[in-house]
Design goal:
Elements: E1 2-9, E2 19-24, H1 31-38, H2 47-66, E3 71-72, E4 76-83, E5 99-106, H3 113-116, E6 118-121, E7 130-136, E8 141-142, E9 151-157, E10 169-174, E11 180-182, E12 189-191, E13 194-198, E14 205-213, E15 222-225, E16 230-232
Protein name: DUF4469 domain-containing protein
InterPro entries: Bvu_2165-like_IHF-HU-DNA_bdg, DUF4469
Pfam family, one: DUF4469
Length: about 230
């Protein structure tokens, strides 16, 4: 296991030669990936069964939390606490002045994990969009088939872009003639970790997917590309 990090100057100490680590995960996984791992070849459980069990576990935990109880599991321990300032020892809870916060701590199965993670120093890279996968709603595939005119979803990081800037956005580049096709319709969801949009009218062929944006704090256009090409099927 490896946890990548780069070093930046720290202002906590008076020594100008002191640095602090900024960590990053080289790859992210979703709950769908966890289910795929659980139901890999040789497993005795199906994806539907895994999802059903997860939903029941989630429901059971949330029901206890809603009652104000503490829930202790091998992965995480969950509890709640009251926040805010009370003016006097007899003041009652006022949702306009006070709040309830969920507290989440590592369970016994996670406490030894940090000791097994190997940190690796890497060079700092410029912030840029990163694409984990493209999901096509109609074909129900990931990183494979795209259906012109259908809905699609991109998951990743730093994906949000300025829809009014024609240089930014979602682009499909034909691997044959290198023609670029920008998604002109405004996305249904335009967030740093998720883009939901309607696919443009693309001719048959193979395409590279790119997301181009100017991330927060940056002054130049950056781009991120999906590792695998996608195909508009005949």
């Amino acid at each position: 296991m490896s946890l990548e990090y780069h070093l930046v100057p720290t202002h906590i100490t008076d020594n100008p030669n002191d640095y602090r680590a900024v960590s990053r995960n080289s790859k992210s996984y979703t709950l769908e990936d966890v289910f795929k791992n659980m139901t890999r070849e040789g497993s005795t459980i199906t994806t539907a069964e895994a999802m059903a069990v997860f939903e029941e576990i989630t429901r059971g935990i949330t029901e206890f939390l809603k009652e104000g109880y503490t829930v202790i599991t091998p992965l995480v321990n969950l509890s709640s606490s009251v926040t805010g300032v009370f003016k006097g020892k007899d003041e009652l809870f006022d949702p306009n002045q006070h709040g309830v916060r969920l507290n989440i701590n590592s369970g016994i199965r996670l406490r030894d994990i940090p000791a097994s993670i190997r940190p690796t120093l890497v060079q700092r890279v410029k912030a840029a969009p990163s694409i984990n996968y493209l999901f096509d709603n109609i074909s129900d595939t990931r990183n494979e088939i795209i259906t012109p005119g259908g809905g699609a979803r991109i998951k990743g990081d730093l994906l949000k872009y300025d829809d009014e800037d024609p240089k930014q956005g979602i682009f499909f580049i034909n691997t044959g003639d290198q023609s670029e096709h920008r998604v002109e319709r405004s996305p249904l969801r335009n967030m740093p970790k998720e883009l939901i949009f309607m696919l443009p009218d693309l001719p048959e062929g193979e395409y590279r997917l790119e997301v181009r944006s100017i991330p927060y704090g940056a002054s130049t256009l950056r781009s991120g590309r999906l590792a695998d090409p996608v195909t508009v099927a005949p």
